[in-house]
Structure prediction request, 346 residues.
Amino acid sequence: MTQTVQDGPAIDREARGDSARGLPPVPPHVHGTADAAGRRSVQERLDRRRRWQGLALVAAPVLVVVLFVGVPVVNAALFSLGFTGGLNQALADIGGDTVRGFSLDVYATLLGNATFLRDLVATLGVTALSTGLTVALAVAVAVILRLRGGFLGKTLSVLAVVPLFVPVVIASWSILTFTDAQGFLRSLGAQFGLDVPVWGYTLVAVVFGSVWTSLPFAVLMIAGALQGTPDALVEAAKDAGASTWRVVWQVLLPMAKTPLVIATTFTVIGVLGSFTVPYFTGPNAPTMLGVDISKYFQAYNRPQQSTAMAFIVFAFAAAASVFYLRSTVRANAGELQKQRQKQEQQ
Prediction:
């Protein structure tokens, strides 16, 4: 009886939702708020840890690039503008015709030099012709491989990739032995009474060598893009009466626009700064700027002028890379837009 009377108030409080000790219960939303705050705190710590881990992984390669690429590039740029102190002191003392004091005199002198302008025009001409031939051949091989395939397509694709495994020095020497006065082409032409022109030690040989070294990358890029084109698009165009030329021009090439821009850009940059091919197969004058840079630095003892030439080449290469960056940004933006549309539909 007594126990029932003592337990009665406790039972009544529990029935009302109070604790057995007489204290009000903790509201359920308080527990939920505390749990959510704890989860957010743990997630924030994990996110901070991941960010620091990512920064630690990236720090080493970034530091290497900054020390061994960034600092030398900035130092060379300052040297070409007349800063001859600090790390540039030795080159300034040893080199000839050094301009001291910040100015654009080095660039003005080069751009006013007829020999440099001649070599610049030759470099740009060889680059344009080599790039055009490389992309055209790569597109032809890729189209044949995509539309016809078979023995012809496989053979052309293999032959186009072979230069990738041949050292540039050996390829340059081979091209020279084929195109010089006593080379294979003139010997073969002589057997049939033909006077084949001598292309060795000319810009024509430089174009041959540039196309040879640039073709494998272009073929891999463009052929991979065309192989990824859906068969349904090609078949639909053929069913609509489109000729092979229209299929290539209006279906295949637009689908490979970004790889085409990438292949073109990297070919331009590679030919602009090439040294081995024009050094082995090209003439003494006019010559490519890559060879000029080496001559000015070593033979003529003009490091400041050679540095300025390097930055002029870099300026043209940077202008060509704008198209690559623009195409890549547009392609990435298109992919992001597609992903957002899919998420909205889901």
Residues 84 and 93 are 9 Å apart (CA to CA). The chain has 15 helices and no strands. The two ends are 66 Å apart (CA to CA). Residues 1-7, 13-20 have pLDDT under 50 and may be disordered.
